[in-house]
Structure formats: C-alpha cells, structure tokens
Design goal:
alpha+beta; GMP Synthetase, Chain A, domain 3; 6 strands; 40% strand
C-alpha cells in the first residue's frame, strides 16, 4: 500500500491513496480537513463498522443501518497519543439478534479490524453496542 501527502498551504495537506482517493488533512483547529489524529480515529471506526456490517449481512440479519460513535482520550503532553478509545455501535434493523450483533462487534474488535488490532498494542480500546428496531 502506498500514499502521498502534498503540502497545500499553512498546515493543510492533501493525501492521495494508492487507489486515487483524496483526503484533506489540516493541523489547524478548525481547519479545512480532519487532523491526522482525527483521521486515525475515523479509520478505526470505519474499519470496524465495515466488519460489523459484513458479519451481520453474512449471518442473514436484516440490518438497515450501522453507526460507530467514537470517543478518545489523548495524553496531555506531546506526543499527544491516544490513551483510550471507545467505540459504541448503533445497529439498526428488523428483529436483529442481540447474540449476532454482540458476536459481530466482538469478532471485529478481537479478530478482523486491522486498524483496531494495530492500535490496541498502544491504546486501551473498548466497545459497546445498541440495537434499534427499524
């Protein structure tokens, strides 16, 4: 996997992935794009939410929505690394099995999400879920 980061102006950069997708990263707050740490947090949420949806679809659950609400704590002093991350999945569907939703979240956190698996080596990561009827 490859990517390229190009300076645009001030603390604003454009990132381009190997597949051609673009993302603005900005070190000012608020800036024109996500900060690099926000992008890491979004990556964790996106990776795990993809897993949850795929697992629930494969288990033939009538899922109609999935949100990952993320909260993170950072160290007070530089480098201001994440010290903890919590993901709360809000899964919407028709007659969803709580057992299947719990299984999907657990499998993502413990086995499949490569971003979570990488981050958990340095950060305390927890998860929870809510089920809502569609």
């Amino acid at each position: 996997m490859k990517a390229k980061i190009s300076w645009l102006q001030d603390l604003c950069f454009e990132g381009v992935s190997e597949s051609g997708h673009k993302m603005i990263l900005d070190g000012t707050n608020p800036g024109q794009g996500a900060s690099p740490m926000e992008a890491v947090l979004l990556g964790a949420g996106g990776c795990s939410a993809i897993d949850v949806v795929m697992i629930l679809e494969k288990s033939r659950q009538a899922i109609t929505g999935c949100e990952a609400e993320l909260s993170a704590e950072r160290a007070e002093n530089p480098p201001r690394v994440f010290t903890s991350i919590h993901l709360n999945f809000v899964v919407t569907g028709r007659e969803l099995s709580e057992k299947q939703v719990e299984r999907a979240v657990s499998l993502s956190m413990e086995k499949y999400c490569s971003v979570i698996k990488m981050l958990e080596k340095a950060v305390t990561i927890t998860s929870s879920y809510e089920i809502r009827e569609a």
